[in-house]
Each structure stands twice: as C-alpha cells, then as structure tokens.
Design a protein that fits this description.
The protein is about 40% helix and about 15% strand. The chain is α/β, with parallel strands linked by helices.
C-alpha cells in the first residue's frame, strides 16, 4: 500500500507552479446537519465541506489544483504564452488567464460558442470580462462541441504566435494530451 507521502514524493518529479493556498480549509456544516436531522427525524453524521473556493487564484476553486501542473509544464517547456480553449463562460479559462497574468505570460483564450442563442451580454460579461481584465487575448470559435476542430484552430493560433517569435504552450482538449491536471487531486 502506498502512503500519501510516497505518492507526494512521486509527484514532486513533475513541474509545478505553486500559486494556490493549500491545503484549503474544511468547514463543519452544523446548520445543514441540524436541518437534515429535523427533516429525517434522527441525527445525521457530522457534515463537512472542503473549501476549495479558498484556493486563492481568481476564485478558481479546484481549477487551481489542475493549473499548477499545467503551468508548471508550460514553464518547463520554456513557454512565454498560454493558448487555451474552452466554453465562453469557462471558469477554467478565467483561472488560466489569471495564472498567466500572475506568471507574466501572455495568454490567448479561444472562446467556444457551446451555448446557442445567447445575447451580446453573455459574450462580454462574467468570465469573459475577467479574462480581459487578466490581459487575455480573445479568439472566438463558433463550433461549441467539436473538440477536434477547436484544437485544430488552437494549433493555428499557436503557429501564428510562433511566427511572431512567441513560445506558446497549448492547453488542448484532445485525448492524446497528457493528463497533468489529474495530479492536482
């Protein structure tokens, strides 16, 4: 049986940028437990919640754990530019844009239109506004559920950035991408 320390030691061999505030706290949910006890008519076990909303980067929650390894790999590759794709209002992309800003990297986000019929406000507010505030360059991609096409377009953006002298690192959706983000858990 592997101990948590042994597993942690194995993860230390992978590049990582430590921007999160870890470990995040646990919070006892006394009122919820009391409410459930009243509803059920019997005591319930202690209830706790893991407060990953306290992870410290742009309210990124569990995304911070993932991105510490992705950006570690980007830095190890000598990248100066993050190129990422996701849904228009993606929390992951917002947090990636914040990471890039903190690390002094340029960031290009490809906004995939995954929700049809949304108005102009949807495409300019919320996470899109925060992406811009973090300095991300915006690219719009009309196909929302075509990961292969989204990655192909992302590769085109990266190729243009390379021609401009940048060193991009791609955050793709393809199945052959190394699952670095799983190390965060």
């Amino acid at each position: 049986m592997r101990t948590p320390d042994a597993l942690k030691h194995r993860l230390d061999g992978f590049p990582r940028v430590r921007l999160g505030h870890f470990p995040t706290p646990l919070e006892k949910m006394e009122r919820l437990a009391g409410h459930l006890s009243e509803e059920l008519g019997s005591p319930v076990p202690s209830l706790w919640v893991k407060r990953d909303d306290c992870s410290g980067v742009a309210t990124g929650g569990n995304k911070v754990r993932q991105l510490e390894y992705s950006f570690g790999a980007a830095q190890a590759a000598g990248a100066d530019t993050a190129v990422i794709t996701g849904a228009v209002q993606s929390n992951y992309m917002r947090t990636a844009a914040a990471f890039a800003a903190k690390l002094g990297m340029e960031c290009h986000v490809q906004l995939e239109n995954r929700v049809e019929g949304m108005g102009e406000e949807y495409h300019k507010s919320g996470n899109v506004l925060l992406d811009r505030m973090f300095g991300a360059h915006m690219h719009h991609f009309p196909l929302g559920e075509d990961e292969k096409a989204a990655d192909a377009n992302l590769n085109s953006i990266a190729a243009r950035l390379k021609r401009e002298g940048k060193k991009p690192y791609l955050f793709t959706l393809s199945a052959d991408t190394k699952p670095l983000t799983s190390f965060g858990y």
